[in-house]
Design a protein that fits this description.
The chain is an alpha/beta fold. It has helices at 2-12, 22-54, 57-83, 98-126, 135-162, 165-190, 199-226, 232-243, 278-296, 312-325, 361-378; strands at 250-258, 264-273, 298-307, 331-342, 345-354, 383-390. The protein is elongated.
Length: 393
């Protein structure tokens, strides 16, 4: 099946290997949407005819479910096109978030359809109607399954290829369609061996699947619009990429904003030795911003944070302090470690980075108290000034 996928991509996506290009991403999204429209429309027509002929609420419900899927594929095409509009004076970061808004509107439409068919299914349970078994209809329903499986595999394949959350979500939804279609086909087969009015009950199950799909799509889209954290793989790649540039030794205060699928704006602090010429480190950081930004399709801004790396005492103290306070629950790392004062009258100044579940003020105070107690136990004559940082990703 991968051979067919690759053929379709090479045939309809120009410059298909350049997946960081927004135009290429749009072509991938358009191809996925068109394949979805063709397959879902074919199944829709087939199920609608069968459902009306057999007077089956379950089959008719799934037919309209495929109508929403076909519309979803159309929305995918439109949103990829609109989100690829260039930035302008009113929208300096582009229109990438349009894809999220259209997905949210479509989630509402799915919920409306689900509620309507849930109501119809309950009425069918209260007032059952006999659904006769028809061999031709059963075979047609059975033939629709490979089409749905193909759509699921293809959408997931291109979604992974361009790392599109929208296409991956569409693939997950099509997997639900496979389960629903299997249940509807099974219910049609059961009518051959029993007179029990199973049609309405299966219709309820199908409706629940529709409602679940709409709810999950809406929830995921809202999470993204509100400000969901980026994928861990993206964050790790960004941090490791920055650290690959010598003499950068550490990264902190990373903030990432999402302006649409594959469109990020990020800022961070890069720790560098204090005794390197400013112009030299500026060239390194400027190069990192441009190269990483181009490769990962992210607008990257790096702030230089000079630190002392040639003072053995400071290095030793930093390692000892983090070895102990790093064991405190909620503390991820420390940075900007400095030692002020002479002899035994010294003050340790540093920033501690907290994990997300510990952002509350009460937990912050508790952690600060534990850090101060730990430092006092280690160095009774030392004072400490602790600031807290949070990673916004």
């Amino acid at each position: 099946m991968k051979f067919i996928f690759d053929y379709l991509i090479k045939r309809f996506v120009k410059d298909y290997k350049n997946i960081n290009s927004q135009d290429v991403r749009q072509s991938y999204g358009s191809l996925g949407g068109k394949v979805g429209i063709i397959i879902n429309s074919s199944i829709l027509i087939m199920e609608l005819v069968i459902g009306l002929l057999l007077n089956s609420i379950a089959i008719t419900a799934d037919a309209f479910h495929n109508l929403t899927d076909a519309l979803s594929s159309l929305v995918t095409i439109i949103s990829f096109k609109l989100s690829n509009r260039p930035a302008d004076d009113k929208h300096p970061f582009g229109y990438g978030r349009i894809e999220y808004l259209t997905a949210l509107l479509f989630a509402g439409a799915i919920l409306v359809v689900g509620v309507e068919f849930l109501r119809s299914s309950f009425l069918r349970i209260l007032h059952p109607v006999s659904v006769p078994f028809n061999l031709i209809s059963f075979v047609c329903m059975l033939c629709a399954l490979p089409l749905q499986i193909f759509l699921n595999r293809f959408t997931n394949y291109i979604g992974n290829t361009i790392n599109s959350s929208a296409l991956k979500a569409s693939a997950l939804e099509s997997f639900t369609d496979i389960l629903v279609l299997s249940m509807v086909t099974l219910s049609l087969l059961i009518t051959r061996f029993t007179t029990f009015p199973i049609d309405g009950y299966v219709g309820v199950v199908v409706s629940i699947f529709i409602l679940h799909s709409g709810f999950e799509l809406g929830k995921d889209t809202l999470d993204t619009i509100i400000g969901k954290a980026p994928e861990k793989e993206f964050v790790d790649e960004l941090i490791n990429s920055v650290l690959s540039y010598a003499p950068i030794t550490g990264v902190h205060d990373l903030v990432i904003h999402n302006y649409g699928p594959g469109r990020y704006i990020a800022s961070l602090h890069a720790e560098v030795p204090y005794n390197i010429p400013v112009m030299e480190i500026h060239d390194v950081i400027d190069k990192a911003e441009k190269e990483i930004g181009h490769r990962m399709n992210v607008y990257l801004s790096i702030h230089m944070d000079p630190i002392k790396t040639d003072n053995p005492e400071t290095v030793k103290l930093r390692e000892e302090v983090f070895e102990h306070i790093g064991k405190i629950e909620g503390v991820i790392s420390i940075h900007d470690f400095r030692v002020v004062g002479d002899c035994d009258e010294k003050t340790l100044i540093f920033d501690a980075v907290l994990d997300k579940p510990y952002f509350a003020e009460a937990k912050e105070k508790e952690i600060k108290h534990r850090i101060e107690a730990t430092i006092t136990e280690m160095y009774p004559s030392y004072k400490s000034i602790i600031n807290f940082d949070r990673e916004f990703y």
